[in-house]
Design goal:
The protein has 26 helices and 18 strands.
Length: about 650
C-alpha cells in the first residue's frame, strides 16, 4: 500500500473563504473532493470511483451554491434535500460532506468499515437522506418527500440524482408518469448522463434513445447542460426554479471517471477495447499513485493561478482511527489484484469463475439453454459465454422484472433460460414475476450471485439474506449453494440436465476463504450433504465457502478442548434426503445450523421441519446461527464478528451447550 494522504477540512475552508470569484473556487474544490474520494476508496479496498467522479461537480454545486441544507441543518424540516438514487457515487458525496465539516477526517477514512461510512447510502450516516443501492427507487422517494412537504406546508426543495443506466428500471417510468399526473411539491431529478453503465456504454446495453423527448412525453420540464460546467449548472438549476406547474429534470452530460485522465471513459474505453475498468474496486498501487499525482498537480496549478498557496496534506497514518482492522485486507471483497495477493488466508478459487467456465462447456453439449443478464456480465462471469455464444446471450440491462418475465416466455417456448444478477435484486425486486413463472410449471434456472453476508462493505442493499426464504416458499423450486468450484460445476449440470423443475443456484462473489476439499470421486447427490469433519459431540450443518470456512475453523478450535464437532456441507437448501439425514445425526444429541442468511426461512428451517415431521428431532438440541436484524457494513471479519458468526464465536456458543 502506498503512502496515503488526504486534504483536511481546513484546506477547503481556506480556499472557499478566499476573496476570489466563487466560480473560480469550485473547480479546485471538486478536484480536492475527487482526491479524497480516491484515497478513501483505496484505503477501503473497494468502492465506486467512476460514478463518484462523474457526479462530483453537480454535488459540489448543490451543497456549496444551490441548497440551504448546511445553513438550515439536517434536522430542520424546511431544509433542501438531496440524495442519490443510484447510490454508487456515495464515496464522492461523503467527500463533499467532509469538505463542509459534516464528517471528520477520521470518519471519511472509515469507508466500508464497521462504525464508519456505508458502501452505499444509509440514513444512519449523518447527511444521508435515503437508503439506496438497489436502483430505480429514487424518483418515487423524492416524489413522496415533495408530496409530504406540500402536505405539511413546509418549504425546502428536493433534488434526486439518477444514473443513466438506472433509467432502464421499470419503476422509473411509473414514477415519471405519476409525478406528472399529480404534480405536488417541488422536486427536481438530475440525470448523471455519463453514457456508461457497469463496464459498457449504455447504448450497447439498452439504448435510452432521445432522453429529452422521452421526459417531455411524460409531461416533464427538461433542461440539459454540461454537468462539469458550473455556469451551465447554475443556468439549469435557475431555470428549473422558475417552473412550478411541472416536475423538472436536468439531463447533465458528464464523463465517467472525470478528473483522472486514464479513468475518463473516452480514454479508458479506447484503451480497454470497449470495457470500462473503473466502475468498482480500488485502483492498484501504480494507478492510484498516477491518479493522485495528476489531481494534486492540477489542483496546485489552479491554486497558483488564483494566487493561493499550494495544499497542505495530512498523512492518513496521523488520523487517529480507532479501528484495528481498518487498514487490513480480508477475504470476500472485490479488491484490486494487488490487495488479493496480500491475502494469505484467501484461496485462489472463485466459485463464480467455475460457474462461468462450466456455462461455456455446457453450451457445446446442450443447445436449448440461453443466458440472460442484468448489466452484470463481468461480475457474474458471463463475459466468456457472451463472447463465444452471442446468439444465446441476452443483455436485458438494469431491468430485473422484465428479464424474469422474458425468461418466463422463453421457458413456455421450450428453452431453458439461465437468469443472472445479484441475489438481493433478483430475489426481491422480481419476486412476483418469479412466482408467476413458477405457477406455469415451466423450468427456469435463477442464478443468485453475490449471495450472503460477505462482502459486507457495500452494505445492506447488496447483502442478500432473504433470498432462500423467498425462493423456498415456491413449491416447485430447488435451491442449491455449492461449496467449491467442483460442486459448482456439478450443481449447474444438475440444474440444466437433470432437474425437472425450477432451480435457484446461489453463488458467493468473492474468493473462497479456503478450498473446501471433496474426494476425487465426489458425486452430487440430491438432498444429501457431505461430511467434512468427524465428530460425535455435536453436528454443525453449513453451506457455501464462507460459512463452511468458519465451521471448519470452529471445529479445529473445539478439538483443542477435546470437543469433536461433526461438520456437514449441506448444499441442498430446501431438499433433504430423510434417510441420509437420520443416519448422519443418529448418534448426535446437539444439532446446529450455520446460515449465510437470515435465521428465518433458510436451511435451518428446512432441516427442522424434516426432523420434526419424520420424528428425527426427538430430544436433540437444535439451534440456528444466522443474521438477525439488518446486516452491518464493514470488513468480512467485522461483519462475521458483529453477527456472532465467526469461527471463534460459533465455537464458544456450541461449547457452552455441552
Amino acid at each position: 500500500m502506498p503512502e496515503l494522504r488526504i486534504i483536511p477540512r481546513s484546506e477547503f475552508d481556506r480556499i472557499w473563504k478566499a476573496d476570489i470569484n466563487s466560480y473560480d473556487k469550485l473547480a479546485p474544490i471538486s478536484d480536492m473532493c475527487r482526491l479524497n474520494t480516491l484515497v478513501a476508496v483505496k484505503k477501503a479496498g473497494s468502492g465506486h470511483l467512476g460514478s463518484s467522479f462523474s457526479a462530483m461537480d453537480i454535488v459540489v454545486w448543490l451543497y456549496y451554491c444551490e441548497m440551504n441544507t448546511l445553513k438550515m441543518g439536517f434536522d430542520n424540516v424546511d431544509r433542501d434535500i438531496y440524495f442519490s438514487s443510484k447510490g454508487h457515487d456515495v464515496p464522492g458525496l461523503y467527500s463533499v460532506l467532509h469538505s463542509l465539516g459534516v464528517f471528520s477526517d477520521e470518519k471519511l477514512l472509515k469507508l466500508r468499515r464497521l462504525g464508519g461510512l456505508h458502501g452505499h447510502p444509509d440514513v444512519s450516516d449523518l447527511g444521508i437522506e435515503a437508503n439506496s443501492g438497489s436502483l430505480g427507487l429514487g424518483i418515487s422517494k423524492a416524489r413522496g418527500m415533495a408530496w409530504s412537504k406540500d402536505f405539511f406546508n413546509r418549504s425546502g426543495r428536493i433534488f434526486v440524482m439518477t444514473g443513466d443506466g438506472e433509467l432502464q428500471e421499470g419503476q422509473i417510468y411509473e414514477a415519471l408518469q405519476g409525478a406528472a399526473h399529480l404534480n405536488k411539491g417541488y422536486f427536481t431529478v438530475v440525470v448523471d448522463y455519463n453514457k456508461v453503465q457497469t463496464d459498457k456504454l449504455v447504448d450497447e446495453i439498452i439504448s435510452l434513445k432521445n432522453l429529452e423527448r422521452k421526459f417531455s412525453a411524460f409531461g416533464w420540464y427538461v433542461e440539459r447542460c454540461d454537468g462539469h460546467d458550473f455556469h451551465e449548472l447554475q443556468r439549469a438549476f435557475s431555470a428549473c426554479d422558475k417552473i412550478t406547474e411541472q416536475p423538472r429534470v436536468i439531463i447533465a452530460d458528464t464523463i465517467k471517471g472525470k478528473g483522472i485522465s486514464f479513468m475518463e471513459h473516452p480514454e479508458a474505453l479506447e484503451k480497454c477495447d470497449g470495457i470500462y475498468p473503473w466502475h468498482a474496486g480500488a485502483p492498484d498501487d501504480d494507478s492510484f499513485a498516477e491518479g493522485f499525482d495528476e489531481l494534486i498537480v492540477r489542483i496546485n496549478e489552479t491554486l497558483n493561478e488564483l494566487s493561493l498557496q499550494a495544499l497542505a496534506l495530512s498523512d492518513v497514518t496521523s488520523c487517529s482511527i480507532n479501528n484495528s482492522r481498518s487498514s487490513s485486507v480480508h477475504f470476500g471483497e472485490q479488491l484490486s489484484q494487488t490487495n488479493i495477493e496480500k491475502q494469505k488466508k484467501v484461496s485462489i478459487e472463485y466459485i463464480a469463475n467455475a460457474y462461468g467456465e462450466e456455462l461455456v462447456n455446457l453450451a457445446s453439449e446442450v443447445n436449448n439453454f440461453v443466458v440472460l443478464d442484468g448489466d452484470l456480465s463481468a461480475d457474474c462471469r458471463l463475459r466468456d459465454f457472451e463472447n463465444k455464444y452471442p446468439e444465446r446471450f441476452i443483455e436485458v440491462g438494469i431491468a430485473e422484472q422484465d428479464m424474469v418475465s422474458m425468461a418466463g416466455g422463453m421457458a413456455r417456448q421450450g428453452l431453458i433460460p439461465i437468469v443472472n444478477t445479484f441475489a438481493s435484486f433478483l430475489s426481491a425486486r422480481s419476486n412476483e414475476q418469479i412466482y408467476n413463472n413458477a405457477s406455469e410449471n415451466s423450468k427456469i434456472v435463477y442464478v443468485c450471485h453475490y449471495a450472503g453476508l460477505i462482502p459486507a462493505g457495500p452494505g445492506k442493499s447488496h447483502q442478500s439474506l432473504r433470498d432462500i426464504s423467498l425462493f423456498g416458499a415456491l413449491a416447485n423450486m430447488t435451491i442449491i449453494q455449492p461449496s467449491n468450484a467442483v460442486e459448482t460445476k456439478q450443481a449447474l449440470r444438475y440444474c440444466i440436465n437433470e432437474a425437472k423443475q425450477n432451480c435457484m443456484l446461489r453463488l458467493v462473489i468473492g474468493p473462497s476463504p479456503q478450498i473446501i476439499n471433496l474426494p476425487d470421486d465426489y458425486n452430487f447427490q440430491k438432498g444429501q450433504g457431505f461430511l467434512l469433519s468427524e465428530g460425535q459431540d455435536a453436528a454443525l450443518f453449513a453451506y457455501g465457502p464462507v460459512m463452511l470456512n468458519e465451521a471448519l475453523i470452529a471445529a479445529d478450535m473445539l478439538k483443542e478442548k477435546n470437543f469433536n464437532l461433526k461438520v456437514i456441507n449441506m448444499s441442498w437448501l430446501n431438499v433433504v434426503d430423510t434417510d441420509w439425514l437420520e443416519s448422519i445425526i443418529s448418534d448426535i444429541e446437539m444439532v446446529f445450523v450455520l446460515e449465510d442468511h437470515s435465521t428465518v426461512g433458510g436451511l435451518g428451517n428446512t432441516l427442522l421441519n424434516v426432523m420434526v415431521s419424520h420424528n428425527i428431532l426427538n430430544d436433540k438440541l437444535f439451534k440456528i446461527f444466522g443474521v438477525e436484524n439488518y446486516p452491518v457494513c464493514g470488513t468480512p471479519q467485522e461483519a462475521l464478528d458483529f453477527h456472532g458468526l465467526s469461527a471463534k464465536i460459533i465455537s464458544e456458543k456450541i461449547y457452552s451447550q455441552k
